[in-house]
Amino acid sequence: MAQDSVDLSCDYQFWMQKLSVWDQASTLETQQDTCLHLAQFQEFLRKMYEALKEMDSNTVIERFPTIGQLLAKACWNPFILAYDESQKILIWCLCCLINKEPQNSGQSKLNSWIQGVLSHILSALRFDKEVALFTQGLGYAPIDYYPGLLKNMVLSLASELRENHLNGFNTQRRMAPERVASLSRVCVPLITLTDVDPLVEALLICHGREPQEILQPEFFEAVNEAILLKKISLPMSAVVCLWLRHLPSLEKAMLHLFEKLISSERNCLRRIECFIKDSLLPQAACHPAIFRVVDEMFRCALLETDGALEIIATIQVFTQCFVEALEKESKQLRFALKTYFPYTSPSLGMVLLQDPQDIPRGHWLQTLKHISELLREAVEDQTHGSRGGPFESWFLFIHFGGWAEMVAEQLLMSAAEPPTALLWLLAFYYGPRDGRQQRAQTMVQVKAVLGHLLAMSRSSSLSAQDLQTVAGQGTDTDLRAPAQQLIRHLLLNFLLWAPGGHTIAWDVITLMAHTAEITHEIIGFLDQTLYRWNRLGIESPRSEKLARELLKELRTQV
């Protein structure tokens, strides 16, 4: 071992002198000498790498103070880069110099310098006259040679990784875990180079049999950051592998989405839908493990905001995008619905998963009654496999909240006695924490309000004051109480659908909007209504025009 160390030191001095000569001269003799020694220099680099990988970066610098100069001279020599595996081994050697946790500015500068050299190796497209002579002899134009070399090397490594993945337990043909880890480290400063995409994809998809993750955390972080900032574009299969293998990356992707939603205009579901689809999260959530993490973060946001309507609306839009992604992936569910919603009744989930567009409008009332029956049994009777209590049933229901929003319209557009099932469904949707007695009281209040509204719809004239009186039918003085919120939404629906509603709509809303919070609630309701009508193809030009006018006016005032 001591003799090997002495030999390496002697070789080091020899090659340092050689590189200095090659660097200072560009004569034909120098080029010939370089070509004659390429195989020997590559063997030296291989030995050097074997020694460097056993040391930490500080030890490397102490043992070989001029190692940076030697590697830099080699990296700027086009003949060395073009020869066999020299380029790859040079990258490995440079990565050994990187200090994972720099303690001072000197170490940070060294890391930055190394990243710059690595970037040069794989992305430089300019050539000196030496490479021109070399490539002309091979029949290539200089501008074509280097990109081709890079692509070939990347494709070769990607192919080797794919074979590694397929070989499974055939250890003789598998790539060593250390080498896979080294490749992931090499890619970190090069993630945004388009030509490196195949290698990044192969690293993400390649799964070893090791008990612990072998890819470097900084590799996952760099890839995730590049995806979030749209600096690279990878196949969905690679993105799914990234988020499955590195939970912090998935969590950061969700937080990135939350930040975009918070910084955007409030109560604009079309923009929210664009952000959600652009995040790639609905597509990736087709895998149950990813869906469960995403859904849990939505649950936390919902609980932290005490059931904020904006969070509920965002969950509904996300679920809609998720269901669309599921349908694109396969007409039949690859995974049982229970794997996505493990704490709720499978039969309830299957009914809610139906798209109202696929059900004739004449059957909507029947479907809503069936949903109400299943929910009520799950909440009050604890049957049908519900294990999570009322909250879990409500949390599932709000994912498909479009059904609840249809209830008010069905009640207002029918002259018949309001079905108890629909009254219960509304009371539960707006007050999931209420007990049976309080929910029954809300149902009585809502039924009374509906009776007044139906009577007013047959009147020849409507007044804002009369509607305000109807709004006061609830006994709650807290305007944020679930019953009051439900009654406000019934009134808004009435204004949109009643023949004379458009003449008093603004006066009624002015009386209702006591606070900025209620104003934002009304804006959110109108935006969500327009969004749902557009999605379901509901055509009502007068109602749509009124909703848009009210929305525009309210947004100018907040």
UniProtKB/TrEMBL annotation:
Q: What is the lineage of its organism?
A: Eukaryota, Metazoa, Chordata, Craniata, Vertebrata
Protein name listed in UniProt = Fanconi anemia group C protein homolog
Question: Keyword set for this entry?
Answer: Cytoplasm, DNA damage, DNA repair, Nucleus
Q: Which domain of life is it from?
A: Eukaryota
Native source organism of the sequence: Pan troglodytes
According to the record's subunit comment, the protein's assembly and interactions are: Belongs to the multisubunit FA complex composed of FANCA, FANCB, FANCC, FANCE, FANCF, FANCG, FANCL/PHF9 and FANCM. This complex may also include HSP70.
Q: Name one GO cellular component term.
A: chromatin
- Chain coiled-coil ranges: none
Pfam family for this entry, one: Fanconi_C
Primary subcellular site in the record, as a coarse category: nucleus
What does this protein do, in the record's words?
Answer: DNA repair protein that may operate in a postreplication repair or a cell cycle checkpoint function. May be implicated in interstrand DNA cross-link repair and in the maintenance of normal chromosome stability. Upon IFNG induction, may facilitate STAT1 activation by recruiting STAT1 to IFNGR1.
The answer to whether keyword Flavoprotein applies is no
Compartmental location = Nucleus
Any one Gene Ontology biological process term?
Answer: interstrand cross-link repair
